[in-house]
Specification:
The structure holds two protein chains of two kinds. By secondary structure, chain A is α/β, with parallel strands linked by helices. Chain A is built from nine helices and ten strands. The longest helix of chain A is centred in the last third of the chain and has 21 residues. Chain B is mainly beta. In chain B, a hairpin with a 2-residue loop joins strand 3 and strand 4. Chain B contains one helix and five strands. Classes of the chains: A alpha/beta, B mainly beta.
């Protein structure tokens, strides 16, 4: 049976989503995205370079027919800015999807929860499919869903920190609290981090720095692809309970 | 006509509509969004939207990004 991720009727073939920032160039971006096997890439909205009109465009390297383009509101510190960027993204793109970010602190890049809730409510009312980047707080996750979020994207650890899933128990509680997909966004540093997120039962993982910042981004993209698949399969298979003492796996009968 | 385009002074070479401005700039309208004085102009209106002296015009597109950490390219935010 197909194990597909569906968010508000939109079907995704990959449970690994990839950010497109911080790569050396567009060639490397395209190769890493290809190796990751993803069908979703996040992008930011910025001014067109008027002075250098022949500068290459990201979408020349990532075909929107092949990849779902998920615009973010990266860099927005107020509700007003986040709404402005989201609306521009919808006009520039082809879908209602938005990865909503309202940042509350420069050092940690933790979300401004109050602003996030407010912006989620406005955009959901305007017909956006809102995927908010949030902290690992189950109460906030529930409030976001009440405000109209189509999924929640809790952080595993601060953006770009590579610290992995710092609070797996909260992520687990979020999974039990909300009935929308849960996508871990931020903090995944290496393949095992992605696997842990998926083994917890998360629906997908979004990775940017963990791939783009690796020594060999294309190889790491491949590693993350397998890590996410492994974690998902293990979650669905059902792991054995943890026990303090040994249980023999070979029979005692027939011993000499 | 003098406008403010993506944060810089810009003098049009005869363009009067958004459509003509984009054409003058060599920008493909399909992949951008245009805002004039903080209001988004829908693609369908590019031809009939007339620019005025002093308009503040923003033309944006998608760039590489994935994390909210890209603060150094917070282009639109003052």
């Amino acid at each position: 049976m197909e194990d597909r991720l569906v968010i508000q009727g939109i079907e995704f073939t990959s449970r690994l989503w990839v950010g497109t920032g911080k790569y050396r160039d567009f060639e490397e971006t395209a190769k890493a995205v290809e190796a990751s096997g993803t069908d979703v890439v996040t992008v930011a909205v910025r001014r067109v370079n008027i002075l250098d009109r022949n500068s290459p465009n990201l979408l020349d390297y990532l075909d929107p027919k092949r990849y779902k383009i998920l615009p973010n509101t990266a860099g927005c510190y107020t509700v007003e800015d986040a709404l402005r960027y989201a609306r521009l993204a919808r006009e520039a793109g082809i879908s209602d999807l938005v990865k909503l970010e309202v940042i509350g602190d420069e050092k940690t890049l933790f979300p401004d929860v109050c602003g996030l809730l407010e912006a989620t409510e406005v955009l959901a009312r305007e017909g956006f499919v809102v995927l908010p980047y949030t902290n690992d707080d189950p109460v906030t996750a529930r409030r976001l869903v009440d405000a109209g979020a189509a999924a929640v994207m809790p952080l595993g650890a601060p953006i770009g920190s590579g610290l992995g899933i710092r609070n797996p128990y909260n992520i687990k509680i979020i999974l039990e609290t909300v009935d929308v997909p849960v996508i871990v966004d931020a903090g995944v540093g290496t393949a095992s981090d992605a696997t842990i997120a998926m083994e917890l039962g998360c629906d997908a993982v979004l990775i940017n720095t963990g791939i783009a910042g690796a020594g060999d981004p294309v190889s790491m993209a491949r590693a993350m692809r397998h890590a996410v698949i492994a974690g998902r399969l293990a979650y669905r298979a059902g792991r054995i309970p943890r026990k303090l003492y040994a249980t023999a796996s070979s029979p005692m009968e027939g011993m000499l | 006509m003098k406008i403010r385009l993506n944060g810089e002074e810009y003098t049009t070479s005869g363009a009067e509509s958004i459509e003509e401005l984009l054409s003058e700039l060599g920008i493909e309208p399909g992949r951008v969004a245009v805002e004039v004085n903080l209001a988004i102009v829908r693609k369908a209106d590019y031809g009939r939207f007339t620019l005025k002296e002093g308009d503040v015009v923003e033309v944006v597109n998608f760039v590489g990004g994935g994390s909210p950490g890209d603060r150094w390219i917070r282009a639109l935010i003052p």
